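lol forgot to send this yesterday, sorry. struct tokens for the thing we talked abt
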């Protein structure tokens, strides 16, 4: 496995791993730029129905931004890194397919900010979460405070951000930051693939619509929208997948969705 991002496909599931274990899988500008290109490829590959993101090794998912790079960064460089990061993280958040963050070990700073852009977050028992930028005199610049607030509430987010503290896997589960905790990293990776394969069997077009509606509520605060829902459901009934789903239900068999 080469250092950097590694993308592999297992059926309709794509698994994206960050492989910089010597640097705790920390992100630098180049890696954020490369992620932009990878997400474009994933978006354009209609065979991919679910994306799983994880970190190589056992100690870290992504331990934040590369401190060595930050130590030599000019204000201009810092602004560019924040701008490109926001662009890429928003792209991940709005990807047409469901995304799963399989979180192993330290998930700090930019790592937590990236994890928050995923639709589903699961973790191993050794996971640690935090936005410790306050200890360096900087802010979490890739949307972390806002997304964390949206996910766990303002009080808990402020406690983590103001103090720069870490929370463990069980606290993350209690807060709603993750939906499931696995005993080991091996079980986490097996579990992530199992969840992804389950989702990949569902109707892709319907899944894309569901994601759009949920994001519309979570991100844009657009709650109940009867016109949107009516048009979305009407569109479903123009697809072969909806016809197949209804027919399979009547025939008491498992549907086979083709994304058409």
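and heres what i got for the seq, position by position
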């Amino acid at each position: 496995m080469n250092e950097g991002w590694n993308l592999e496909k297992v059926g309709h599931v794509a698994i994206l791993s960050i492989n910089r274990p010597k640097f705790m899988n920390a992100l630098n500008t180049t890696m954020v730029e490369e992620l932009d290109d990878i997400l474009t490829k994933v978006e354009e590959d209609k065979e991919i129905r679910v994306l799983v993101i994880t970190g190589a090794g056992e100690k870290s998912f992504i331990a934040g931004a590369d401190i060595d790079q930050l130590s030599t960064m000019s204000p201009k460089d810092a602004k560019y890194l924040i701008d490109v990061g926001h662009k890429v993280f928003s792209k991940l958040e709005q990807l047409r397919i469901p995304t799963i963050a399989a979180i192993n070990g330290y998930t700090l700073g930019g790592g937590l900010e990236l994890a928050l852009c995923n639709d589903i977050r699961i973790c191993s028992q050794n996971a640690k979460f935090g936005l410790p930028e306050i200890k360096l005199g900087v802010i979490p610049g890739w949307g972390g405070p806002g997304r964390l607030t949206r996910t766990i509430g303002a009080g808990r987010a402020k406690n983590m951000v103001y103090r720069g503290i870490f929370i463990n896997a069980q606290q993350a589960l209690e807060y709603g930051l993750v939906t499931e905790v696995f005993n080991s990293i091996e079980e986490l990776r097996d579990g992530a693939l199992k969840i992804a394969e389950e989702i990949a069997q569902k109707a892709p077009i319907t899944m894309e619509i569901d994601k759009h509606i949920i994001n519309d509520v979570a991100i844009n605060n657009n709650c109940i929208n009867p016109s949107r829902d009516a048009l979305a459901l009407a569109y479903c009934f123009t697809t072969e997948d909806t016809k197949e789903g209804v027919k399979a239900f009547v025939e008491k068999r498992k549907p086979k969705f083709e994304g058409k």
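Residues 75-93 form the longest helix (19 residues). anyway ping me if u want another try
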